[in-house]
Structures are given as structure tokens and as C-alpha cells.
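SEQUENCE, C-ALPHA CELLS:
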Amino acid sequence: MAGLSRFARVLPLLLLGYAGLSGGWCAAQTASDDSDAIRGVVINSVTHDPIERALVFSPDNRFATLTSREGRFEFRLPKKVDPDSESARESTSPDRDASRTGSSLPSVLMARKPGFLADPNQQGMILEDGAPRELTLGLTPEAVIAGTVTLPTSEAPDSITLQLFQRQVQEGRAHWVAVGASQSMSDGSFRFADLTAGTYKLLSTELLDTDPVLSDPHVDPFAADARGPLFGYPPVYYPNAPDFASATAISLGAGETETADLSLVKQPYYRVKLPVVVPESDESEPGFQVTVYAGHKGPGFTLGYNPLHHAVEGMLPNGTYTVEVTSVRSGGESGSQTVAIKKAAGDGSRIEGPSIGLTPKSAIAVNVKEEFTAADHTGSLTLTHNDRTTVLNGPRRYLNVSLEPVDEFGTGQSIMLRPPVGRSDESMVLEGASPGKYWVHVYSSRGYPASIRSGEVDLQHQPLVVGAGGAAAPIEITMRDDMAEISGTVDGVAPPGQGTGSIGPMPNRVRVYCIPLADSSGQYAEIEVHGDGSFESQRLPPGAYRVIAFDGAQREIEYRNPEAMQDYGSKGAVVRLAGGQKEHVTLQLNSLSAPSNEPSSEPTNEPSNEPSTEQ
């Protein structure tokens, strides 16, 4: 609160000082017959209550003011003047000319206040012509996760690091993404603030005792005279789960505060040393990335690679762990091993072995079949890598392919196409995939992938499986260019110059989403809506789409998850596009409220109470 008080005292001074530097705009704040105004209100986007003492400003910092007790603000502006008029010609000030002709009008106004987050769907825009001058700017109250870390002895632990992960949708699939870390205070309390509405998971990180002898770099922790076990606090997955996957998800709405307490238990830690067997073909040993987890993949435990001992080393408590070793070198080796630690007091403090054998990562060939009907006007592509220039003339010019690990908590990196190995190398090879399952992504600036297969596996709907030793069949891609289009109208959109710029369906916030049905090979697309409610898609691959209009941007559409998409079964229109087809549809506007949780039937050509089109 002290910081907020200082902010409140200093901000008026900053605004006053800014007014002294703003020239003509300072004078423009006073009312006159030769002025116009932009005014509005800042509201809580959840409760719709006005927010006082919020800062309203333009991104270029030419406009700034605090809202009143009723949440209102106002900027006085010079009226536009015809530059060819006599009064405009009499002006000798370049700044005055610019302001009076409207060129200095702000293009965007934003609001800010501690304890609130910007609402991207309610940040008002001021356009050059025909824009509303009565605006409503929305701020969303922050969500908070707070709690206390405790010990069974009721003593406050040393400062503990806590990690927070949020469930986010990327490429139509949900992933757990790290969004912050916090240190517990001396009394064990912690707090995560400035959170958006969403789903989170919380865990504590390991904290080990510090041994002054083992902290000496000249002491070998595996020497015969090394000390006994150290003690530490293993990670705790809220509220008390064995791994990240089984941790309880915390659902937060805007403005909500969730209390999440964690209880730590001190356990003995044992020194672990796992030799790494590097293939003899390696002339020099590369660096290795080490991932360790108990149960399902997830954060919490850590080990490291010691190049002096050619081994993975560190400390772990009792339990069963999977240790994965991956070369940091592109196209290098990888391996994994399961380690079970079951020791009782007096059994000793060191565990050596088993060893981790490494095998080469996969090199998966990508073959492209072109079934284009239009002439090729893409030309050649010049690619420079490691000071080597290659001129590409094949599909590599317009096509890119990558592999994404299937795991919801993705610890691995995406696999990209190998750079050319020679001046005339136009081959497409995905190099560096460890054993596991991967989604295949294809990006093209020409046409679309009509088919993506590996053997009998349809990779547009099923993952690619990379076996031990990197075994995988080549990826076969068929490219076509018979694209289709969707256009239409969204009912209820206010044309420019009407409405208040507030929560109503203004065109600068309405979006149309083309979502491929589960059995379709279509491509997800987001379309902006024009001021008159009309829209036109970019060229789309043929397929079956559910087309939905929303009053605001949607960032959490899990369109690759058929179960999640059941919630949208009664919304929008189903459009089935053949190659080269152009289809028109009229849509009803949907609010930003969450989809219904009621299960829906399978998509049909004519969903109830919604328009539908059929090829």
C-alpha cells in the first residue's frame, strides 16, 4: 500500500510536468468554442462499476489524465480546420497546424491502475474519422493465489521458491506453461498477483541443506570418506500430489483470490551418480541436457551432467525416477534410465549406476508430392547458414515442417528441418527427434497440405511415433492449391460512428473463427470483421468448418480436442467447402461467456437454430 500511496502522490506531479511540456495540447485542455472532446468512463469489466483514479493515456504519452470518482475522464481537443481556410493559413505554428487538422489525434487510448489488468476487448480506439467520442475502457481485476508454506514442527522454513504454471492453448492444444516464481517470506507466506482468469498448478521447488565440506569444489562427494546423507525438502505439488500431472488444478476467475497452503516434509537425500555411455564414434563429447521426474513428466526434481566424470550427478530422496539425457548438439544422441532409490537410515549415502546408454536421434525424411494447378511464381530462395549460401528451388522454398512433443507438459524442444548440408542440398530432413510421440506441423506459403502420412498413419489427426534408435517411416506430404473462401455477415455489429465504444459489439473487437471439424483436414483461421459487419476469409483449404462469431478475441479455443469442442456444438454454422468453392454465411454474435458444459451431438449439416451451408 505504501508503494500505491507514493504512486498516487507522484502521478499528479508527473502529469503537471508533462502538461508544461506539451505545448498546444496543454492549452487544449480548457474548454472553448473552438474545441472538441474525447470523453468516457473506465469500468471494472466484471462488475461494470466505475473505477476512480485510473490513469487514461495514449501510448505515445501525449495524453494522460486520472479518472474522477465516477470513473470519468475527458480530453479537450482543437476542432478540425480546413487547411486551405483563411484561419489555417494565418497560423504560423507547425504544431498548431498539425493539431487543428487532426493529424495529432490519438489513435488509441488505454487505461491502467494497480490491481487491475488491461482488457484487450475493452481498450477503446479513437479513429481519425467517424469514431465515437464517448468511450468505455475496461480493466479486469487481477486474480491472486496466496498461501503459506509450513513444516510439521510449525517452524517457518527457509525461503522456499514456488513455481506457478498456467494451462494455455497453443496450436489448438493445451499445455502447461511456466508463468511465474515467488519466494516465501520469513513467516512462510507467499503471493502470486497480477494473474489473469484461468487454470493454474502450483508447486514448491527443492531446498537442500548446505554441506560446507561438499560445497568445496576440491571434495569428491563420492569419495569413501564423504559424509552421510544430507536432508532437504522435496517438491510439493499442491495440495499434496506425488507428481505434477496429478496435482490439483486451481481455477481462478477475474478478481478472485485462492488460498493454497503447502506443507513440506524434510527427507534424507542421497548422492546419485549415473554413468553416461557416449558412443565411441563421437570425436568430442557434447554437452547434455538432463531431465528428471517422478511418475509423469513435469517440473520439480533436478540433476546435472558432470563432464569430468562422464556421468549424471546430483541428489534425490527415496522414490522411483526417470532420468533422460539429451545431447545439446543437433542430431546428437539421447537416452533414458529408470532409477529406484529405496534406502533406510544407515544404508549409506551414495548410489552409483545404472549407466545410461545413448542412441542416435532420428533423421526423418520428408517427401513432398505437388499437385498444383496454378503456375509457380515463387522463384528461388537463397538461404544462408553458417556462412554457407544455398539456392533452393524445390518445395523447401515455400514449405516448413516441425515436430511438437505430444506431452501436455512439454519439456522437449520442437524439432525443425535440418539446414542444407551443401550448396545444392534441397532435401527435407527432420533431425534430432528422441523416441516418443510428436504432432506434425506443416506451414506453407503456397497451397496447403492435403495429406500428411507416415506409412498408414494419418498425421493430420494422429501423432508420429519415433521408436528406439530414432526409427520412423518417412513423412509423405501431398500439396494442393485448390483453395476455398468463406465470406459473410455478422448480425448486430454497430457501423462506424455509432454506439459508445463500450461493451457493445463494436467492429474493432468482433472476430470470426473458422474451426475445422474433428474429421476435417481444414485449417484453423481467425478473421477480422469490417465496420458494417461483413467479413471475408483468406484462402482456406477445403474441408468442414464450424464458423463462429464472437464479441471479442478468443484465445483458448482447444480446436484439436474433440471433447473440448463439444461445448461449441450449438454455436455458429457448419460450412463444408470443396476445392475452389466460395461460400457465404450469416452469423449471430456470441458473447464472451464460456461455452456451455452440456454435451452436444455430433456435428451435422444443419445445427439447430443456426444457419448452415453445404457444398
